[in-house]
Write a structure and sequence with these properties.
The chain is mainly α and 295 residues long. The chain is built from 12 helices and no strands.
């Protein structure tokens, strides 16, 4: 069966890994929000939501990390492209897989809690009001938050996420022991959640926010999911992408650029130089031989 069903092309394997990883992230993350909201805080609180997203990301990276690197976030994928750790032609495949996985994860949460949704809302799905449920799936700004403030929030939050991820996977830094990286990455989300969640709930991930938002738009919440908050929807899409790029550039310029060069790289460069010198000598001898022959 493996011979007939196993995928041969690497990009297809990576596509499925990113899809499934993002699905796991959204199922655990948005599922923790759904349990809190639909139980009217009797079976959840902010801390359980932080745990849900932290463990969800950790499990998502365990699921997909060995195949695709476990990005599960377009901002992380873009940062890897900037640093040359991901080929640019793979980037669209990763992003599509992440959005589809997030959409599917949101659908799974809605299906899992469908009866609870109907009981909580009396069948009226809304983004605002006392029985609002749209925020289970996507982020919406707090009343005090301006557009500029929200954009900065997402740039800084995602920047910290990407910066710390780069430190964890950097072989030239302290890093994390092999197999423990997903746990360390999950702890980043916990730290961000308890310190930067007031403004809009730390989406930090265009796929995790826009994918479920698209699901709510077609599942009964309507276009209000895009217009609410002064058309807030684009901020958790654009802000994280900018934050990821800024973090990648800063980490490279301030940390990675200054690592001592690996001995193997030095030896390889020396070998290349010696080969070039040998080629030059051979070329010189050949020229002399030709000159003698001509004379």
């Amino acid at each position: 069966m493996r011979q007939h069903c196993a995928l041969k092309h690497g990009i297809f394997k990576e596509f499925l890994a990113e899809f499934l990883g993002t699905f796991v992230l959204v199922l655990f993350g948005c599922g923790s929000v759904a349990q809190t909201v639909l139980s009217r805080n009797t079976l959840g609180e902010p801390l359980t939501v932080h745990i849900g997203f932290s463990v969800g990301l950790m499990m998502a990276v365990y699921v997909s990390g060995g195949v695709s690197g476990g990005h599960v976030n377009p901002a992380v994928s873009l940062a890897m492209v900037i640093l040359g750790k991901l080929k640019i032609w793979k980037f669209p495949f990763y992003v599509i897989a992440q959005f589809l996985g997030a959409f599917a994860g949101a659908a799974a949460v809605f299906g899992l809690y469908y009866d609870a949704f109907m009981d909580f809302t009396s069948g009226i799905l809304s983004v605002t009001g006392i029985n609002a449920t749209g925020h289970i799936f996507a982020s919406y700004p707090a009343r005090h938050l301006s557009v500029l403030g929200g954009f900065i929030d997402q740039v800084v939050g995602t920047g910290m996420l990407v910066l710390c991820i780069l430190a964890i996977i950097d072989g030239g830094n302290i890093g994390a022991p092999k197999g423990v990286e997903p746990l360390a990455i999950g702890l980043i989300i916990m730290a961000i959640g308890v310190s930067m969640g007031l403004n809009c709930g730390y989406p930090l991930n265009p796929a995790r926010d826009l994918g479920p938002r698209l699901f709510t738009a077609v599942a009964g919440w309507g276009m209000e999911v895009f217009s609410t908050g002064g058309y807030w929807w684009w901020i958790p899409v654009a802000g994280p992408m900018v934050g990821g790029v800024v973090a990648a550039v800063l980490y490279f310029l301030l940390i990675e650029l200054h690592h001592p060069r690996d001995e193997d790289e030095k030896a390889h460069e020396v070998e290349e130089e010696e080969e070039e010198e040998e080629d030059d000598e051979d070329s010189s001898l050949k020229d002399k031989y030709e000159m003698i022959a001509m004379s």
